[in-house]
Amino acid sequence: MQQLLEISPVLPSANIERDIKWHEKYTGFKVIHSDKMYAVLKRENLHIHLQWHADTEDDPLLGGSVIKIFVSDIYPYFTEFVEKKTITKDKLRLQTDWQTNEFGFYDLNNNAIFFVQDI
Q1: Tens-of-pLDDT digits for all 119 residues of the chain?
Q2: Nearest-CA neighbor of 89 among 99, 105, 78?
Q3: Among 115, 19, 110, CA closest to 74
Q4: DSSP characters over 27-73
Q5: For a disulfide at 39, which of 34, 68, 86, 102, Cβ 3.0-4.6 Å?
Q6: Dihedral pair phi/psi, residue 59, rounded to 5°
Q7: Is-above-0.70 flag for pTM?
Q8: Residue 67 — φ and ψ, nearest 5°?
């Protein structure tokens, strides 16, 4: 049975280290992974992802946002979105370096929407 598991917003950041400290102090989210370009914060069952942007014309800080929808089985969703012509078959990424199967697309406002299965 397919099941939606969680949604994890990915927010733009001009300074990952600074923003981790702010979240730990003001929102109660604690870092579970970070590097200079990306961080994952968690509080209970909720996650916030931070992604660094250069704030240039080619990499704007305030561009379209990204959401990640975690699922127990990616294949029914992948098939659904291929059938709806939301995506093409070549969009499925299996066994990524970060241990996921995933695919994504953009909405009309240039926000990225990813479906992700942890493996």
Answers
A1: 888 888 888 888 889 999 999 989 988 899 999 999 999 999 888 898 999 887 777 777 766 688 888 999 999 999 999 999 999 999 999 999 899 999 998 876 677 889 999 99
A2: 78
A3: 115
A4: T--EEEEE-SSEEEEEETTEEEEEEE---SSSS-TTS--EEEEEES-
A5: 34
A6: -140, 70
A7: no
A8: -125, 150
Residue 24, judged by CB atoms within 10 A of its CB (0-12, 13-18, 19+), counts as middle
d(CA 72, CA 119): 9
Picking from 13, 5, 74, the residue whose alpha carbon sits closest to that of residue 40 is 13
Please give the structure tokens belonging to residue 16: 């990952």
